[in-house]
UniProtKB/TrEMBL annotation:
Protein name: Mitochondrial acidic protein MAM33
Organism, scientific name: Iris pallida
Taxonomic lineage from the root: Eukaryota, Viridiplantae, Streptophyta, Embryophyta, Tracheophyta
Signal sequence bounds: none
Gene Ontology CC entries for this record: mitochondrial matrix
PANTHER family per the UniProt record, alphabetical: COMPLEMENT COMPONENT 1 (PTHR10826), COMPLEMENT COMPONENT 1 Q SUBCOMPONENT-BINDING PROTEIN, MITOCHONDRIAL (PTHR10826:SF1)
Length: 201
């Protein structure tokens, strides 16, 4: 065996050892600084809504308003954590991107709202009308920016959403749950990489 081969054999375990220590340190930090990741919340109630779909491996969550026998409207809310942004070197508070779809029971036309949820509230980015739910594709006209609408119309549309259960309880649940889902997925990724490196070493 040449000297170079011997050096490579000696260096490989050292590199693996440093990587494993770094991974385990990050795993330990995540476990100590974050609450335990939530399991699927499918079926639980949040105000007037029920979590209709939630998969720990997916990034989004879907809620539907509980419908009684006399309910005339269907309201669906889907949320996805927004991209990580930075304020200088520090990460900015996370936001969720939320879609709210309201339609009359048994009918196709729908109102579609794009919202941002942040700590302490939410804002509406756009409100659109669609002749059917099938027309919710990204290539459709999104309507004017919500901020350019008449202030009275803006307030009326916000009131319309509030009457349908889009409130602080719901938005706080969405933001917290989506953040915890991301934390859990990051921890699972770290453990997967740790297992891969452990086998390689």
């Amino acid at each position: 065996m040449s000297l170079r081969q011997a050096q490579r054999r000696t260096a490989a375990p050292l590199r693996y050892g440093r990587l494993l220590r770094a991974l385990r340190s990050e795993i330990s930090h995540e476990l100590s600084s974050s609450p335990p990741p939530l399991q699927s919340q499918a079926g639980i109630s949040v105000g007037d809504f029920v979590v209709d779909w939630d998969d720990a491996r997916a990034q989004d969550v879907l809620l539907r308003r509980r419908a009684g026998p006399e309910e005339e409207e269907e309201v669906a809310v889907s949320g996805l954590l927004g991209p990580l942004r930075f304020d200088g070197e520090d990460p900015a508070p996370r936001e969720a991107l939320v879609k709210v779809v309201v339609k009359k029971a048994g009918l196709d036309p729908a109102l579609h709202f794009h919202c941002r949820v942040f700590d302490g509230g939410f804002s509406v980015g756009s409100a659109r009308y669609h002749s059917s739910v099938a027309d919710l594709g990204p290539d459709k006209y999104r309507g004017p920016s919500f901020s350019t609408l008449d202030p009275l119309l803006q307030n009326a549309l916000k009131g319309y959403l509030a009457e349908r259960g889009i409130n602080e309880q719901l938005t706080a649940f969405l933001l917290q749950h989506l953040c915890q889902k991301e934390d859990g997925q990051y921890l699972n990724w770290l453990r997967t990489v740790e297992g891969f490196v452990t086998k390689g070493s």
